[in-house]
């Protein structure tokens, strides 16, 4: 918004970090592109740190080709259209600042819809608060990815920022409901499934 204020969300980045760690554990060469996450970074990866959606898209494109790609980042859908160069001041008149937004590039959709050089397996996430399965199924088709890991991030689930996850894996062949388990267990199971498809 200005040099001291920004828009963020409640994601910790823990699920993405756990997936990278699980893939490293299976012997994959992993490039981990991370926004300003609070979760510990995975070990044994090539780490690329970014701050904005545009920077993340560039970093992703620079690091292709890849056999598989997982998009677990909670990328902001919108950014402030023109961030102020100096701190926006309260002038005592009671006038309120008005923020205008611009849409960020959709990294998952961009990569999923690549005509050439698309990763063989593209996995996206869907964080929803209602009609999880319907929204996530529609999202898979709209974005063009192969799998969507859908989770309910309503505050009462404690999933966003927490250590557990409760996911449904949606693919072309249907939806697979996984029991609630730790984020590392979700990551291990997802990585094992990716290895099956990508030939171990
Ligand atoms: O549309 P929504 O943000 O719910 O989609 C979630 C999925 O899309 C996640 O896999 C997320 O990493 C990805 N995404 C993206 N670029 C954006 C917004 C979301 O890659 N600008």
Summary?
The chain has 200 residues and is an alpha/beta fold. The protein is built from five helices and eleven strands; from the N terminus they run αββαβββαβαβββββα.
Bound molecules: cytidine-5'-monophosphate
What is the percent of helical residues? 25-40%
**Main sheet attributes: strand count, strand direction, barrel closure:** 5 strands, mixed
Order of helices and strands: HEEHEEEHEHEEEEEH
Number of strands: 11
Rounded mean pLDDT score: 95
Poorly predicted segments: none
Radius of gyration: 18 Å
> What's the multimeric state?
single chain
Give the terminus-to-terminus CA distance. Answer: 45 Å
Output the structural class: alpha/beta
Q: What general outline do the C-alpha atoms trace?
A: globular
Annotation field: number of helices: 5
Strand content: 15-25%
Topology:
Elements: H1 14-25, E1 31-34, E2 46-49, H2 53-62, E3 68-71, E4 78-80, E5 101-103, H3 107-112, E6 121-128, H4 132-143, E7 147-152, E8 164-165, E9 167-171, E10 174-177, E11 181-182, H5 183-198
Parallel strand pairs: 1-2, 3-6, 6-7
Antiparallel strand pairs: 4-5, 7-9, 8-11, 9-10
The structure holds cytidine-5'-monophosphate.
Residues 53, 71, 73, 75, 77, 104, 106-108, 124-127, 139 line the site of cytidine-5'-monophosphate.
